Amino acid sequence: MARDLTREQLALALRAWAYFVGGGTETLREGISLAVPWLEARWDAGDDHLPLTLVHDLGHLLLRGRDFRFASARDLASWPESERTARMTYEDKVLGRWAVDPSVSEAHIAIAGMNARARTAAVAHAVGLALAGPLRAVPELVTANSAHLRTLAASFVEAVPERHEAWGDAAPDEYWRDWAREQIDASVAALPAAGRLFKPEDLWEIAHLERLPSDSARMALREVNTWASRVGPVSPAVALGIRRRAREVPVDADEADQYPAGGFDAISTKGAFENLVRSEVAYVGEGAHDGIDLFDVRFAEGELLYYTRDESPLLDARRDVVFVFDRPAEQRFKIPSLPAQTLVLSQSLAFALQADLVRVFGPAGSKSKFLWVVEHDADREAAREEHQLLSFLLAAEVAHRRVELAVVEGWEQVPEAGRIVWSPRAEPTDQRRLAWVRVGQELWRTGENTIDLREEGASRALADIVLLTIAKGEPRPMKKKKKTAPQPAKK
Question: Which of 82, 97, 229, 280 is the most exposed place for a label (fewest CB within 10 A)?
């Protein structure tokens, strides 16, 4: 058979695909009637290689969640003996895995809260995200004209029976059943055998699809989300080390003497042995029986009392961080060996760092500002577009007052405290900052550290360096100009 189906062949193919669906609703026709608009949307978007069977089954899983019904619960008795093994294997290895996939559940929850029209679009979009890419390179899959699908849809749905055993004369013949089975098997073989079906950026896109202003904005936000997710969250070990390091450094050394710290302020059943309450020693030797006394019992049961140390409130103060994107127009340039534009990578790192700050210091432990410093019209245009995109991406953080975003004219409008700068310029000597990350090339530099972004895990390593700098809270000092002796006036 040719790779492109004719209109007559498509009518037969649709029946064959419908014959093998693995789940859906109470009746077969109802499930197909809901799936055809999803298939039309995907084919209109260029994914005309997707078979109806997989679009139907994944779509209903996303739409119904735990209420999804396997076809075997409805039609097992009516399946021919020769088909049962293949059908049950498909349900078990494909639909069963999808049904317990946490990412599918998250997508279902996001879709369930939408109105009916938005749900249809979201299900179709989610199906495309999950299936279109992996199946695009499968040579066995045929393609078809979406216009033919629209003209055939009504009569096709009408011919689908309520139950499997009622196919009758509308059932596909043996040739088309074998053909459909081959299409499904080839599709299943191309899908990932393990891992989550939807990536974090997929889930974010599905949840916000209804409010995205345009396809171009969706793709731009997806790129930022993709690279931010590749940075990954800060590891628990690094987060713990940063918390410990942060508590060793007063946030404001000029005011630290106003908050006495270092004494004892309470009693707890947890603590270091040297902080043991002295009266606990009285239990030593008391009630001794078979070599065990009350002190040993209280120690084993965790009932001994310890003094806890007082700590300065300054150590728990909120950290204000300013992510500065210098010369945004110049950063809108892609190095051939790097995966995305420099500005996308800079903003993705800042986005990931803001999430890390919340994880490390808590929801109220930090506040971040995203500032674009502009110098000319090209900067203003680039900054305006990026500000609009990140405002949408960080809308929840802005609503909780953890994040602010602004475009500023010149460095005099940038707060000095907490600056983390992403700039294509070399690090200056006359500015206070926590960190200056020089971007725009394969090797990014901050302080004495050089990071090769082409290496695996390089973005996460750079993020950890910046996080540690934020935890320390010590700005890099400005270098003072050397004073020169006055020269004698020339006679």
Answer: 82
